[in-house]
């Protein structure tokens, strides 16, 4: 599971260094979160916002998968989160044994769903929040097909063109610079590989003008940045990802884009 991860200091491969750490050949050492997820963050690029702090707030983290995510998705007019991931998996026309990143994996809800739905895939859940990663490790049986690591999505410790799929759900609007993150996605995906995910474009839209006002106030207070399908398509295209296609259900937008070549 460490195969796809690289030392953020020198880019070398990582290997286990006892029960609590991993190391690279140059001796750079990284602690494991909850005994399984290497902490590969040297410097956080991500701006801290109330939305970011919420993702580190343990009471919320503990109910995220069971209550928060299903409720938020329903409020946004989407389907249930599991059906969402299944729809994205269908769009992948998956090949057996793909290397998949679940970027901003939270407590691993989408990571486990991807691993279950993609035959023989290796799925690595990546997140910035230590409490989310602790929860992910605790909720995920130790397996050679699922791993986790702490990263900042703006600087991925992953080699160029080394993964088949990057999945990112319910997180693009949390990133300080989503265009920079999508550039990183395009860098690590191999030619012919795909970027898939879900983003909320207007979560309270179904509530009409009151919903829109509440949404703008919420975005201001939380530091979230909502954007529409066209802006997302432009960011993908600027990053060199083509064939953007999206389907919306309420305020939830499921999308796929591909890196040209094969
Ligand atoms: C709402 S959760 C999404 C979890 C899961 N993907 C899902 O669909 O339910 C958003 C996650 O994005 C993570 N996140 C936010 N900014 C990040 C960044 N710059 N790098 C990595 N993860 C980030 C948060 O810590 C949080 O766990
Ligand atoms: Zn190193």
Describe this structure in words.
The structure is a single chain. This protein has 262 residues and is an alpha/beta fold. The protein has one domain (37-258): Vaccinia Virus protein VP39 (Rossmann fold). It has 8 helices and 11 strands. It has helices at residues 50-54, 58-75, 81-91, 109-117, 130-139, 178-188, 208-222, 229-238; strands at residues 14-16, 21-24, 29-33, 37-38, 99-103, 122-127, 146-150, 163-169, 189-200, 242-249, 252-258. A 7-stranded mixed beta sheet has the order 7-6-5-8-9-11-10, sandwiched between helices. A hairpin with a 4-residue loop joins strand 2 (21-24) and strand 3. The protein is globular and about 55 Å long. 43% of the residues are buried. The mean pLDDT is 92. The structure holds S-adenosylmethionine (SAM) and zinc ion. Residues 46, 55, 69, 81, 104-106, 109-110, 127-129, 132, 152-154, 169-171, 174-175 line the site of S-adenosylmethionine (SAM).
Specify the overall morphology. globular
Strand arrangement, major sheet: 7-6-5-8-9-11-10
Compute the separation of the termini in Å: 24 Å
Q: SSE order in H/E notation?
A: EEEEHHHEHEHEEHEHHEE
Largest sheet: 7 strands, mixed
Which tags fit this structure?
single chain; 262 residues; alpha/beta; Rossmann fold; 7-stranded mixed sheet; 4-stranded antiparallel sheet; 34% helix; globular; binds S-adenosylmethionine; binds zinc ion
